[in-house]
DNA sequence: TTAGTTCTAGTCATAGTGACTCTAACAAGG
DNA sequence: CCTTGTTAGAGTCACTATGACTAGAACTAA
């Protein structure tokens, strides 16, 4: 690893572009504002220039022996402690001026994390330095409107949100944000959070029951102050287009 | 540009990954086999190792001042002479072993070219060396099954074909593969070629007329041995998600 | 003038969907 | 024990989208 000194930014820009991997992480959380569930994501605070102390997507360099998705998963674990249930390539961002120093091309992945997994990590991360946390969670909708994020990360988040909302296979998305067993109402909550609109429970139920990748179990979820709903499980295959992508 | 000598492949692999841009180009052509139109794409013959003399996707390095899409367009013009009507990022391929020499991460774009534009270039390219052409056109379906392409380009083509067939906005795709004015039957030919199945003319007509991004003109296409069909034009906006992407 | 072709309009049955109603099955509180 | 509140889950109705099909319109070629 030889570091070559350059006198100014212009010269650094003529270097071959550096390659970085970043990840947009989605999880589901209770939203104190609306009372419903909504989409949240963790950002990390930058410790170095440029954009020191500003919030950024977790990311890092590409290891010499890692595939792109492995690099994304490894980095995600190192920076946030999270292990995603889903990981898919989002887009490669490479505008020449997206980094003020040397040119960086970022291959961005997007990940889905279960609510339980995410909450564990959250407390763990904030317990280190509660006043100045290294990782913090934000409402996805808020971030898409903020202007103080590092690099072009606000634009990336905006695009990730768009992709999530225009994803065709919502079935698998809901499953990966929930646990092994779930009620149809929970799936509906996922849809409502992602699409940001209320759905008719009866019609939604009818649609889901005609979906092939969800099967009913013999278990029911008791404890609510109402009729116990039946639990369902995901039966669709975890594989996707492009083998070895995504995560079980 | 200093070239550092390395004794073996293993050491080269520890270098930072090189970045390359490649493009999968689709165009529409008469298919002598089926008699209908089908999807074709041009490949270039490699002049250097590795995979010397084998067919590969057109591609090249990323210029220091070009955006990713500009690099794709520039390279596409230089290697094949083609100017695409549509250009969108497909995927970033970065498996550690996809190149036998040093590690290469390829950001791949996919392009749509009009039949007229493509045919000009074809004759131009083959006229240079008719026996051993630099560029040649292949049926997309055939390529997706071939095993003798350079690098992982067969896999990339397979994925590009899958993406094209699962594209939601077919309207704009048909428009970009055709000219400014087109008949509804021509649009149907595009759909039939892409989806690889026959469509009912009357039903297809009904569906297209309810689409908002196609408007009828006062012109008709005469010359056929049948009732002259009306000509239509595309009125949808060329802009897409991610500004400055795609091409007018 | 006739035959052959495609364009174009229309019908009919069916599948899917949004809005809505109603009953079932629990918990909580008197 | 019984009422009330809540959500689960089944079902109805109207409307829309779509596949299969029929038939007339408008051209060319012979």
Automatic annotation (TrEMBL), chains A, B:
Q: Which organism is it from?
A: Paeniglutamicibacter antarcticus
Q: Where is the NrtR DNA-binding winged helix domain?
A: 175-233
> What InterPro entries does the entry give?
NUDIX_hydrolase-like_dom_sf (IPR015797), NUDIX_hydrolase_dom (IPR000086), WH-like_DNA-bd_sf (IPR036388), WH_DNA-bd_sf (IPR036390), WHD_NrtR (IPR054105)
What residue stretches are annotated with the Nudix hydrolase domain? 41-158
Per the record, which residues fall in region Disordered? 219-248
Q: Which domain of life is it from?
A: Bacteria
**Pfam families attached here?**
NUDIX, WHD_NrtR
Query: Any idea what this protein is called?
Result: NUDIX domain-containing protein
The root-end lineage is: Bacteria, Bacillati, Actinomycetota, Actinomycetes, Micrococcales
